[in-house]
Amino acid sequence: MLKGFKDFLLRGNVVDLAVAVVMGTAFVAVVTAFTDGIITPLLAVFGGTSQLGLGFQLIADKPATFIAIGPIITAAIDFVIIAALLYFILVIPANRAKKLWGAPKETLTDNELLHQIRDLLAEGSAGGKHES
Fold it and tell me: Cellular component per GO (predicted)?
């Protein structure tokens, strides 16, 4: 049971997924800091004199009815920046590396290999017979 778990953990896909999650989390932290430090203050410029930021109040006397548009815009900008970074930093280089070095060839089972040998021998013997 532990050997199976060890094999599962050491498979390439699991390791790649773990690396992707860690890198994605790091990108989220960097991009969130960027949007909180730069984008949010820029959006506040358009928010007018409201202390609540960019948005609108449904009922004038109740702050709980404020619909905040700024956080939605900030989250959308976060998403676009993270998607662009992951695409240009991870996906494109990975695709280039795959083209450069090629995808690993799949390994055949013994039976599949024997079937291919049989078929090649059958083709060779059928094409090699000449009547004189």
Answer: plasma membrane
